[in-house]
Amino acid sequence: MERREFIKTMLRRTGIGASVAVAGTAGLVGYYQPRKEFYSQGVEEAGRKERLERPKKVVVIGGGLAGISASMELARKGFQVTLVESSAALGGKLTGWDLDALGERFPVEHGFHGFFDQYYNLNELFAYAGVKQDVFMASPGYPIIFKDSPEEIFGQTPKLFPPNVLSIVGQSRRLDLISFVKNSKGLSSMGELFRYEYKRSFSKYDSIDFMTYCRNGEALPAFVDTVLHPFADATMNRMEMLSAAEALRYFHFYFLGSPEGLAFKITNRDCMSALINPLEAKLKELGVTLQKGSTARSLKVEGERVSGVVVDSPESGSALFLSIKSSAVPPKGFAAFATADGVPIMVGRKGSGYVAYDGRCTHIGCPVSPDLLTGGFYCPCHAGRYDATGTPVSGPPKAPLARLAVVEEGGKVIVKREGASGELLACDYCIVASNVRGTRELVKASQLGRPVFESKVDSLGEADPYAVYRLWIDRPLDSAEFPFYTVSGYTYTDSVSLYSHFQEPFISWAKKHGGTVVELHAYAIAPKDIRPEEEIKATMLQELHTIFPESVDAKVLQELFMMQSNFSRWAPGDHARRPGIATPFSNLFLAGDWVKVDAPVFLMEAAAFTGRIAANSIFRQESLKLVPLPIVPMKGLFA
Questions:
Q1: Cβ neighbours of residue 232 under 8 Å, at least 6 residues apart?
Q2: Measured distance CA(112)–CA(490) in Å, rounded
Q3: pTM above the 0.85 mark?
Q4: DSSP state of 568
Q5: pLDDT > 90: percent of the chain
Q6: β-bridge mates for residue 322, sequence order
């Protein structure tokens, strides 16, 4: 079948044929390329000021990309910004720390990150902070390793439609044009990917999961297995738990509606030094006050406005309260309890009395668990360990767990935090840019008296846990030609990153020792596959041996395993309940990748985008010029 006839047939069977002109005796196609747009904010810019004439105070809660983005824009226009971050470092999921191993010091982070060209708002943030372009390198392609079939390698795709789609089919060993043409129902289902439109897509498809969508549409199994399933997993949500509408938005943003094509960059050194440190330096240059290692505990409300934020720090505490039966405390070691607002508390016996610690890891606030082997505490999220006195002994935590005051009265153990009742940061405006868990805890503790809003925040969920397993091994993996692989069909491993292929100091270490630094990622572990750490590690190591057989005889010189649960959930039905940027309080706004927006943005770009929108919401009230918000087209090519 000639190319022009195939394209005619494909477009006709997907119901989108009228939108692309097939012309000329030479068989050429009238190609279509999307254009970058700007998000409509509905505000007339005439007469608006560039900067504040009188400083006003803003408290931004959360030092991830959303909080950094909002703080940067606010400080540029003259606001006095205080950025509160519970971790000892900014960055959220981009943060990092140092690991002493094998006689050297290595930077480590939460996992592999790719930076796409259509991350317009995030890339503008990096550029303004002076992030140098030489820290980025282009990824050479998209190899996908399947358990039961040959590897697929997708190179850089054209930016024009339909060549971008045809190139995916043309590069694949498992996909062919004839199968697409013959499967008219599956082709129509695939055509829905090109018809993304916010209201229509969410109204029609948010009630079902993406796996059901693919099955109901009778999409080609080979296309699901080869393209849709591996790429959908990168949302950090399993297809069985991912809203079909969110999946349509995801594919529209990353490929089908993007004018940038399927291209991304990776950093040639760790994200902390390459990206977060320059962002922090810029914030300080702009006069932003950084309160790292401090946790926002509650919002103080007066009428329809937030007047301040109660913050804990090592110098000031809040009266965390817990009352348990004395018999619930074990004779040895510690037991984990929780306050009414969900704060984990570790309680144990000491002599004839009791001892208690705030069970939130001082790295980024994940809950720690009693470590039965050492008698201390362990944070599985980032492999942080504390001894029985709460002092950090390994991993990223630098500060000790907060010691709590304990008394026994009438057969009950009562736990309070020593010190004051917390510091009150007065504010004219507040932006909550924490993650899902932190936002839920903050709103619950604040007792705002707005049941509808509080219910929406409480409905926010986290995706299934993900795991990161980094290994230093004693030999090269000669069959690994790419720095990053997507993996499909295995119990745990969803991707493999060869850090010694693209990032220092791992490149130098590998050259010196003849080894490899490899990282395995499990994007979203199903409940039935949750196992003890050692079992998961053993299975992932066996999967590495299957993927790269030359690793079978390799010796593991050093390892780092982390299991976390902090990515936003995008389940069917979540979208309707999700809170938006605005809140019932006129000076309180939300930001983060979990916030409800109608724009086609996702993951890191959604964080930067919503941080800017929250800042613009404040600018609107102060009659200041808004920050332009570049986006990919709001609708699919054939919506």
A1: 210, 239, 242, 247, 250
A2: 19
A3: yes
A4: B
A5: 61
A6: 415
